[in-house]
Design a protein that fits this description.
CATH topology of the largest domain: Rossmann fold
CATH architecture of the largest domain: 3-Layer(aba) Sandwich
Radius of gyration: 20 Å
Shape: globular
Strand content: 5-15%
Strand order of the largest sheet: 1-2-4-3-5-6-7-8
Largest sheet: 8 strands, mixed
Distance between the termini: 52 Å
Helix content: 40-55%
Number of strands: 8
Number of domains: 2
């Protein structure tokens, strides 16, 4: 049985290599014929956009379990930051992984910054292993420990399972003695939307809020239709039909305008500082911009950064894109800014926000 699985993995990865080569040939020919796809696109930008779009189109017709298994096999390998320490654990009953960057001062757990990371994947895909590279890079720049949690995924566990898990994970950190003022919540894509929903849920429950949140390409409106979902599809990974299908599957009959599922439609007053990063070529650009502007309008320190010509979730490709590495540097600076410097052990802990 093990040998069969291993052979299947080798075949799948060989297929990935061949499809990447095919995409590379297509991109090279297209750039020679009509120039860059977008003004700031490097060859690597265009290769990633082309290959990812082809992969999502290829997987879309498959049944969900097969889609997930196949995606795990073909996802780009995760090259963790050298010298970081990785420890598997459980947090609120979920699989989790703690990441400690190299050179981080040795201090009690409640005296350092902790990054609670919620991975992306349309609430349908994504694993802790797939996010080891990105989370370790962010933790290194932020000079913080990170914990990546494996929240439940649809369709087996539809909305609001992921939100319930995010609340449970955050509560577990507080119960372990980590002050809210030393926690930053972060996520990308669906994980970014989940992070925003988590903030709203915590505020509504009267729970201590984290020091801030980082939302990378956050999917904040599952009810959105038209707009940049249509006009930007040529330069992003997906199609409007695929995004709508994902939303229907995750919601399983729930209302897409429910603010717990679509935090762009929630009351945003009273949230902590936000760093919101979105690519200028993304299909979800307009919903992310509208979310940030609504937050600003009610007094939230929402720092919107639109990265020109970048596609969805570009910071995940730091091994290939300079824009991704610069975005991660921006995230690290934000986390360091909103979390206080660790106090001496004899000093009282910082108050919850």
């Amino acid at each position: 049985m093990y040998g069969t699985r291993y052979l299947r993995s080798i075949v799948l990865r060989l297929g990935v290599v061949l499809r990447v080569w095919a995409a590379a040939i297509a991109v090279t020919a297209a750039r020679a014929h009509r120039g860059r796809g977008l003004p700031r696109w490097t060859w690597s930008h265009e290769l990633l956009a082309t290959w990812m779009k082809r992969e999502f189109a290829r997987l879309a017709p498959l049944p969900w379990p097969l889609q997930r298994r196949t995606w795990r096999a073909v996802a780009l390998p995760s090259f963790a930051v050298r010298g970081a320490r990785f420890e598997r654990a459980h947090l609120a009953g979920m699989d989790a992984e703690w990441i400690t960057p190299r050179g981080l001062p040795d201090r009690p757990a409640n005296e350092g910054t902790v990054l609670l990371y919620l991975h992306g994947g349309a609430y349908l895909f994504g694993t802790i292993d797939e996010y080891r590279d990105f989370a370790s890079r962010v933790a290194s720049e932020a000079r913080a420990r990170a914990v990546v949690v494996g929240y439940r995924l649809a369709p087996e566990h539809p909305f609001p399972a992921a939100l319930d898990d995010a609340v449970a994970a955050y509560s577990a950190l507080l119960e372990s003695g980590i002050p809210a003022a030393r926690i930053v919540v972060a996520g990308d894509s669906a994980g970014g939307g989940l992070a925003a929903s988590l903030l709203v849920a915590l505020r509504d429950r009267g729970a201590p809020l984290p020091a801030g949140a980082v939302l990378v390409s956050p999917w904040v409106d599952l009810a959105a239709r038209g707009g940049t979902l249509v006009t930007h599809q040529d330069h992003d990974f997906f199609t409007p039909e695929l995004v709508e299908r994902w939303a229907r599957t995750v919601l399983a009959g729930a209302d897409a305008t429910d603010p717990r599922a679509s935090p762009a439609r929630a009351e945003l007053r009273g949230l902590p500082p936000l760093l919101v990063q979105v690519g200028g070529a993304e299909m979800i650009l307009d919903q992310v911009v509208a979310f940030a502007e609504r937050a600003r309008a009610v007094g939230v320190d929402a720092r919107l950064r639109v990265w020109q010509d970048c596609f969805h979730d570009w910071p995940l490709f730091a091994a290939m894109l300079g824009d991704a590495r610069r975005a991660i540097e921006e995230i690290g600076a934000f986390v360091r800014e909103v979390t206080p410097v660790a106090a001496p052990r004899s000093a009282p802990s910082a108050p919850d926000r």
